[in-house]
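Suppose you are handed a protein chain with no further information: no name, no annotation, nothing but its sequence. What can you learn? This example shows the usual starting point.
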Amino acid sequence: MMETRVGAVVLAAGHGRRMHSDVQKQYMSLAGRPLILYALDAFEHSPVDEIVLVVGAGEEAYVREEILARSDISKVSAVVLGGQERYHSVYEGLKALKRCDYVLIHDGARPLVTEAIIRRAIRGAMEDQACVIGMPVKDTIKIADERGYSSATPDRSHLWQIQTPQAFSYPLVREAYDWLMEDPARQVGITDDAMVVEAFSDVSVRLIEGSYENMKVTTPEDLILAEALLRAGRGQRREPVEIFNCAVGCSKEHPT
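A reasonable first move is to predict its three-dimensional structure. Written in structure tokens, the prediction is:
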């Protein structure tokens, strides 16, 4: 029996215009290291078998020579060129995976993801085929009308802010993305991978708690907050985690 394999697609192809910097945010220094290395390090020390890193045009050599070659990251099997939109980049990453049964898709601009969060995402995918990491919203949310006035206030007890990684059965998400790429009319408004699975399959996506600290670095203020959390010992700490249980037909025993 072939062992179950878990892959990861880490996205580092964004433009980061809101950072107002000539340096792409994923390569900015965060507490003395390139920001992208924090996410890669978390996946390196997780049960993930293979990582595909998706980068922007002209960045492949820089990433290989200046970041990966100078780190102890060994699980990156490919550095591939992303596309115009996020879903194009995800699709390129999915195609580059050598062989996997489950895949996690993660925004490289979330440097505070932890090994424990990754393990929960893997378990969720194995149990339910599709899951996303997120957290219940803390604030009241208003829906604005076209004039900028409040038109509705949804019950926040049913609202989650969605994060990454998002984890899926590989055949499920690959088929959904194949359909998406063949149907440009349905690509409008696609902002995450769960939307693709929801649009092109009948599989329900499970919500799994991540952490409020699993933030996305988008603006200069986010960079300051992320560095403060890292210096306080948050984010990349090695958390105690329970033994990984491949209870759904997995033949490989993943390490704790």
